[in-house]
Amino acid sequence: MANEIRGEAHGTAPVPLSVLDLVTVGAGRTATDALRTSVAMSRIAEARGYHRYWVAEHHSMPGVASSSPAVILAHLAAHTERIRLGSGGVMLPNHAPLVIAEQFGTLEAMAPGRIDLGLGRAPGTDGATAAALRRTDHLNEGADDFPQQLAELTRFLDDDFPDGHPYRRIHAVPGPVQATSPGGVQSPHRPPIWLLGSSGFSARLAGMLGLPFAFAHHFSAQNTVPALDLYRESFRPSSVLDAPYALIGVAALATDEEREARRQVRAAALNMVRLRTGRPGLVPTPEEAEAYEFSPMEEEFIASWTANVIHGTPDEVRSGLDDLRKRTDADELMITSNAHSGDVRLRSYELIADAYGLPGAA
User: pLDDT, tens digit, for every residue of 4-63?
Assistant: First the structure.
C-alpha cells in the first residue's frame, strides 16, 4: 500500500505537488459554476503532473460547496483517468463508519487504485450544524471516540471483524467480502487511510498506527512543525508504511502580476473575517474587498492570515513553497488556491506548474 501513498516529484519540484479543493463559490456565481471549476482543475492537475486531488468536507458555509466529498469525487473520477482522488477529509464523527466504508468502496470500484480516504475528527462546521448532522447534542471529539470509530471503519474496509464481534456478519459492499463469495473476484486495492489534523492529537495517533499524516498548515501554521515532529517521533512501522510520510496543506496563489495576487488574497481574507465573526458568505470580489472599511482588529487578523498565504508571481510562490518545504521537511505539498474567480484559481495551478517545469505545458 505504500506505493499508493508515496508520490513522485516532477520537474524541479522538491517533493510531489498536489491539490486541495474547497469548491469555493464566489459572489455572483453558483455551486454549479464552482463544481465545473473543480472538474477543470482536476483535469489540469492531472495533465500537469500534480500527484493527488482532494476535496474537504464542510457544512453550512455558503462559500464552500464541498459538503459531500464522496459525491464530488465520483464526479471527478468520471472526468479524469490517472490522478489520485480523495478526501481531505471526511469528518469521521459526522458519519457511521459503515457508511464511509460503503461510499469509498464504491469510489474504489469506480476508479481502482486511485482513491484516498483522508479522515478528520473535527465537525467541519459549527456545533449546532454538527448536532444536526449527528442527530445528537452530545458531541464528543475526544481521545476515546475517534480511535474507536477509526478502528471500526478500518475493520469494515478490510472485512476482518473477529469471531464473536456483533458486526462479524456485516460487510461493506463493494469490499473484500465479494472475493470470498462463490465465483467472487475482488479488486486488490483498498483506499489507504490518512489521518488529518491541525494539532497534535491526530499527529500522534497517525504515528502510533503507522499511517500517513496530513497537516492543515493553511489554517494552523503555528502548529505545523511541532505536529510533524510529534508524528515522526511517534511513528511505528506498519503494514501500511515502513517510514513516516507527511504532507501539509498550503495556501498559495500565483498570478501574472504581484499586485493582482495581493488583491485576490485580500478578498479571500475578507471572506475569512466574515466566517470567523459568524457571518459566512460567498467569496467576495476583489473590488468589494477594496471598498470594504476594515476595522483595526480586522486589519490585524488579515495581516496574520495573509502572512501564511504564499502569493505573488510564479517565481515568488515557488520560492515560498521551497522555503516552507525546507522548514518543515514535508514529504508532499498540497496546494489550495482560493480566490473569487475560478479562472484565477485555474491560472494559479498552471503558473505554479510552469514555475517548477512540470509536464504538460501548453
Answer: 899 999 999 999 999 999 999 999 999 999 999 999 999 999 999 999 999 999 988 899
CA 288 to the chain's CA centroid: 28
Is omega for the bond preceding 89 within 30 degrees of 0, making it cis? yes
User: Residue 142: which of 121, 126, 125 has the closest Cα?
Assistant: 121
Q: Give tens-digit pLDDT for 181-207.
A: 777 777 767 899 999 999 899 999 999
Helix (H) / strand (E) containing 342 = helix 342-355
Number of H helices, E strands in the chain: 13, 9
Distance from C-alpha of 198 to C-alpha of 184, rounded to nearest angstrom: 41
The Cα–Cα gap between 258 and 261 comes to 5
Using alpha carbons, list the distances in angstroms from residue 357 to 60, 147, 195, 267, 321: 39, 41, 30, 29, 14
Does this model's pTM top 0.90? yes
Q: For the beta carbon of residue 204, count every other beta carbon within 10 angstroms.
A: 20
